[in-house]
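ARCHIVE CARD
Drawer: 12
Card no.: 0347
Subject: one protein chain, sequence and derived structure
Cross-reference: see card 0346
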Amino acid sequence: MIAIIKYNGGNVQSVQNALGRLNVESVVSDDFTIIQQADKVIFPGVGEASSTMELLKEKGLDTFIPGLKQPVLGICLGMQLMCKDNEEGNTTGMGIFDINVKKFPANDIVPHMGWNTVNDLKSPVFSGIEKTNDLYFVHSYYCELSEYTTSVCDYILPFSASLQKDNFFATQFHPEKSGKVGARLLQNFLNLEL
């Protein structure tokens, strides 16, 4: 069973639809017992960091999510909230990844929106995927490069397109909106055995 964390963050339906296209059933829930019993957990996100973090705190999800033991996939804002500090709303995140989230400098159009290339793929979720230019991004803030970086995108500056630490995986891009490559990445995540 796949659990998608419910916390009023956007994009939940898109993720559920993407899993449906893979013939995978999922449940959207904020019930700790249901989430703990899931084989895999997806933590999607579209929205503003500080208000979203407050919603997570109200439900106790901010301390619950870091304690999960099964594979967890954070997407977009979900990835950013798994980090330590976020310049958006001066937000303290969950600290799963000990890195900072910063606003893109205004050297080009912000937000970074659309299809882009991702390089230096270093995670089992990229199995069978080579350097690719068909991953979809929508974001104004980025995760720094770090020891947790498992792929790199370059827009204005190089940033972490994905992260991994132990059972926690995260993507800045939206696999649920990234066509065949995104579907392959989701399937790879679903196939993980840790």
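Annotation on reverse: The first strand starts at residue 2 and ends at 5. The radius of gyration is 15 Å.
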